[in-house]
Amino acid sequence: MPRSSSTMPRVWTFFCLDQLLTYLVLAAGAVSAEVLYLAYNGDAAITWSDACSSYGSFCHKATASVIITFFVVCFYVVLSLISSYKLFTRFDPPSIVDSDKNIEVAVFGS
Fold first, then answer.
1. Which residues are registered as beta bridge partners of 96?
2. For 1-110, where are the alpha helices, taking DSSP H only?
3. Which residues contact 33 (CB under 8 A, 6 or more apart)?
4. In 3D, which of 35, 77, 80 has the Cα closest to residue 58?
5. pTM more than 0.90
6. Positive or negative CA dihedral for 25, 20, 7, 87?
7. What pLDDT digit, counting tens, does each position of 29-73 carry?
8. Residues 6+ apart with CB under 8 A from 3
9. Which own/partner pairs from 101-110 qualify as long-range (CB within 8 Å, at least 24 positions apart)?
């Protein structure tokens, strides 16, 4: 993306989308890991036996898929860090002017 086209709304949009996709992929990985755990161990409370003893190739492929998913989560975390760095170093924090004292106060801290 060219530097001249990096407006504040566009950078905020990329930051929010990076965060959204990171958490979405993380949630999908967590659900997949839980299903894989149940496939390996079953659940005695509801008399659900393990499926990996019958469908071994499925469990191997699902294990590889969960591992790849968590590598993707790591890459999205790095992408989110990069977009947050670009957002918070390029633009000043928004400020609020206190009308009683005519003092400009930064919203995000000092």
1. 105
2. 8-41, 56-90
3. 66
4. 35
5. no
6. negative
7. 999 888 888 887 777 777 677 777 777 788 888 889 989 998 998
8. none
9. none
